[in-house]
Amino acid sequence: MEQVFAYTKGMVRTDTSYCPGCAHGIAHRLIMETLDEMGRLGSTIGVAPIGCSVQAHKFMNVDMCESAHGRAPAVATGIRRVHPDKLVFTYQGDGDLASIGTGEIIHAAARGEKISTFFINNGIYGMTGGQMAPTTLIGQRSTTSQSGRTVEQAGAPMRVCELLATLDGAVYIERVALNSPANINKAKKAVRRAFEVQEKGLGFSLVEFLSTCPTDWGLAPADAMKWVSEKMIPYYPLGVFKSPEGGQA
Amino acid sequence: MSEKVLMKGNEAFAEAAILGGSRYYFGYPITPQNEIPEYMSRELPKRGGAFLQAESELGAINMAYGASASGGRVFITSSSPGIALMQEGLSFLSSAEVPLVVLAVCRGGPGIGGIHPGQADYLQVTRGGGNGDYKVPVFAPSSIQEAVDLIYESVELSDYWQNPFLVFTDGILAQMMEPVVLPDPRPEMKNEDIKKHKPWAITGYGDDDSKRAVVKSLRMVPDDLEKHVEKLFEKYARAEKELVRVETLGVEDADIVFVAFGTVARITKEAIELLADRGIKAGLIRPISLWPFPYGAFDLITDKTKVVISAELSMGQLIQDVKIGVGKRFPIGLINRTGGIIPTSLEIANRAESILKAGS
Question: Is the pTM of this model over 0.90?
Fold first, then answer.
C-alpha cells in the first residue's frame, strides 16, 4: 500500500509541554517538516529562547542550545560565525524578541546575519502567567494590564516585521498566522523561503507567526483561533514585508 | 617561542589568545582595553577566525556562548562596567559548562567610575557576580609576560574544565609596554575535528540523530538542578586543589607579610626593598589565582611576623580573603588607594612602617 503520510523525523516522538490549543506545536512541526524536506536536519543548529518554548530542544530533532532571555540572535550569530555552512535559526516569543531582546534582534537583522528567526507572537507572556507583552493589543487584558492595555499607560503594541523591514540587512520578512489550514499552509511556505534565503547567504530572515495562548487569554482553543482572526490580524496584517525580489511578494 | 619583543599589554594579550588557539572574538569598545578588539579585527580574519563588534557586552558574551557551544575557541575582553553586563553570560556558561576565556581589565568604580587602574571588581570576579551557585577560576598576572602565559594556558584550561576562565588585570598592564617572549602557536582546531575534542558541542549531528547534542542550563525539576549543581561543585572542589597559583617572597621570619596581586604586587616588591634599607624585614604572598585563593600559602607565615598587610586598589576587598587565610594568628592591616590612584612604593613602605610601629 502506498504510504501517503509519515510523522516527520524532525520532531522527537514525545508529548510536548504546551497547553491544549497553543499553536507552538504547529509552528514546531512546520519548521521541522521543512528542514526534513530540505534534507537539512543533520546540518542545522537551533537556539531556544526563554519562555514556554525554552524546552523546544526536547521536541525539535536538531542540535540545539538554550539561551538567556532575549539573547538568542546573539547566540545564533556566534554559532553561524563558527559554522557558515550550517543552517542556524532562533525560535523566540514576543517577550523574548520584542522586549528584552530588542537590541539583539535589531542588530542581528542590521548586520544581515545569515540566520533565520521564527517569531511566535501571541501577544502575552505565557510562561510567567499572562503578563502584558510589547505586542499585547490595546484594550487586551493581561495580569499587568487588568483593565486592558492603554496607549497612555503602556504605548501602542510593537509591529516587529514592519520595524525590521526598514533595515537593509533584513532580506526576508513575512508575517503569517496559524489560525486556519490555509494560513498554516502559507506559513510553511514562508518557513521554507526563510531557510532558502539563509542557504543562499542573502542575509537575515524572519517569519512572524500570529499564535494563540488560550490559557492566558482565558479562551477556549477554538475561540482563541477566532481571536487571532478577529483581533490580531487587523492590527498585525499578514504578508511579505521584505523579500529578495523587493517589496511585497 | 619567539625572540623577546617589545609589546603593548593589550596587543600582547590579544596575540597570546590567538597563539593559544582562540579564533573567535566578540567585543564592544570600552577603555582601557580597546587595542584588543582593534588587534583582533585586523588579525583574526587573516588567521582563519572571525571578529565581530557586538551591539553591547550582553551581545558579545552571548555571541561568545554560541560560538563556544558550537565548538569554537573564544576569547573576549572588557572592562569593569562591561564585565558587569557580562555576568548574566558567565553564570549561564558556567551552568551550561561551556568554555570561554575572558580578560577583565579592571578600572575604578562604582558606576561609570573612571578609566584608571583599579582592583575594586575583586569580589565580583572571585565571588560570582551573576546569579546562582557557580565558580569561575581567576588569574591575576603582574607582568605582561605573565599575562601572556596565563591567557595562553587558559585557552586550554577552559576547554579541559568546560568552564569560563577569567584573567583579571588593570589599565597599567594593558597600556604599558614590556618585553615579552611569545609562546609557540597551538595547532588550530578545524571544524571537522570539533566533535573529537568536544563531543557535547552543537555542530549539527550529520546522518545519525542518536548523536544529537543539546547545550542547556534550565533544570525545572529541583532534584535535577540540585544534582547538577552538586556535580559542578565536585568539579570546583577539584579545581581548588589543582588550580591554585601563588608566588611567595621572604615570608618566613618577616616582620611584615604583604598580600598583594597584579600591579600592586609589583610595587610592593619595591616597597619591601625600601623597608629592608630601614632594617625591617618584609615578605610577600602574591596570589596568582584569586579563585581558587592560595589560603595554604598563609601557613608559611612564622610566629615572628607582627602584622599581615593587604595592599590593594579597593576599599578592603582582598583583605576579606586575607582574613580567611590568617585566621586569628596575626593582626591584619590595610594599605589601599582607590579611584584609579596607584600608591608609590614609598607610600606603601611608609604606611607599612607606621602600621608596624602602631602595633608594637
Answer: yes
